[in-house]
Amino acid sequence: MAIAKSTTRNFKNLIGGKWVSAHSRKTFENRNPAKNRDLVGIFPSSDTRDVSDAVAAAKEAFKTWRLVPAPKRAEILFRAGGILTERKEQYARDMTREMGKVLEETRGDVQEAIDTAFYMAGEGRRMFGNTTPSELQNKFAMSVRMPVGVCGMITPWNFPMAIPSWKLLPAIVCGNTCVIKPAQATPLSTYNLVQALLDAGLPAGVVNIVSGSGSQVGMPIVEHPDVTAISLTGSSEVGRAVGMAAAAGFKPCSLELGGKNAMIVMDDANLDLAVEGALWGAFGTTGQRCTATSRILIHKKIARRFTEQLVERARKLRIGNGLEKGVQVGPQVSQQQVETSAMYVKVAIDEGAKLLTGGKRLQGKAYADGYFFAPTIFGGVKPSMRIAREEVFGPVLSLLEFDNFEHALAIANDVDYGLSAAIYTRDVNQAYRAMRDIDTGIVYINAPTIGAEVHLPFGGVKQTGNGHREGGSGALDFYTTWKSVYVDYSDRLQRAQIDTGE
Hints:
The protein is globular. Strands 14-15-16-13-12-18-19 form a 7-stranded mixed sheet, sandwiched between helices. The chain has 2 domains: 18-257 and 465-484, Aldehyde Dehydrogenase, Chain A, domain 1 (3-Layer(aba) Sandwich), CATH 3.40.605; 261-445, Aldehyde Dehydrogenase, Chain A, domain 2 (3-Layer(aba) Sandwich). The protein has 14 helices and 21 strands. By secondary structure, the protein is α/β, with parallel strands linked by helices.
């Protein structure tokens, strides 16, 4: 089945190396959120039967894939990185059609998958264990990494190739097999990523795709007894349910969840730079990032000047179809997301926040067939307001003022999430205190809250996740389990902690 061309309309599940229809024969449509008449593709609406088939295929493939030397597994990833590089523009355009974000950003999304492929290919020769002296004579001790087995993966719609690559590629190089459920809003990009892996020589059954809903596919993957580890990127609400289900089966579970990320602007900051960072952090990907800058904390001394510049720039942002040249902000991914943004605008106004710009769905011929919401900024926001505490996942930004550095830290940390944060300052002492004292998994100095790189751990604290990390060596820690090995060559019984060697 060819899936590379954007004109392809009908897709199937990938199970055991074969493209097969869902047992139910039901399907769902994937449409362009900027131009809803544009049908990107038709995908299987699967159920537990399809999940069972995919898990069985992955379990069978694991028997041989785990025995392939890690450097050989890595060679497939390296070739896939080259294939993705060749197809970058095509896959980026496919992604803009199905997700909506501007072409410049979808190129970056594909580039993250390329970077992850090359990085994880290198890990095939760096999957280091440890050797350590034994407490007994003539005894050798070491630890080695082992694959965990069949990994179930549930991915979101906002980074529909990058995030699947963060999960699939480290799992594969570690010797695991996978069953992945792409987001219903953006399945094509996962198919494109997996097609690159297949074309690079990935054996049948190592990766299996089952598309469909969370209830019919996602939870059955989590609950299947032969799935040995779970990785989810999604909302904190869904993460809680998935984590509880995984815990019932004693399964390792990596949860990458929500954020309510703050950018602190000190009175000594480069204001022009801070405004640029605020625009990109808040309205890049139309605010639909877990790392989006959703709160800006501004020192009272510069609040008026910063706010005026930011609002003026936000009003000039060009909004439209992400495939069109010059467009800076695309649509939201769905009608539901537009409704969520509108709901939070109403909540903010009812609570007394001041609407400075935006706050509504865009009307007119250019926006009639899409899900466009104006970049929105609220002033006069108090830390207790819902708009300052809950994740909107849209182009809605809150401005809060603070008195001093300590006050800013207190506001930044006083939320349920802890993913990303930023501070703009020229004071090196404040910068280092922020790095230490902001309670998040990621901190940026003089940069917005977005822009993570694939060779560093990605994840957060509090309701943002459960402690696991994606990216870098943190991914290897999740997709492998440690085995300790002892080799006694003394030719006699030695008892650790009892024998003294005398």
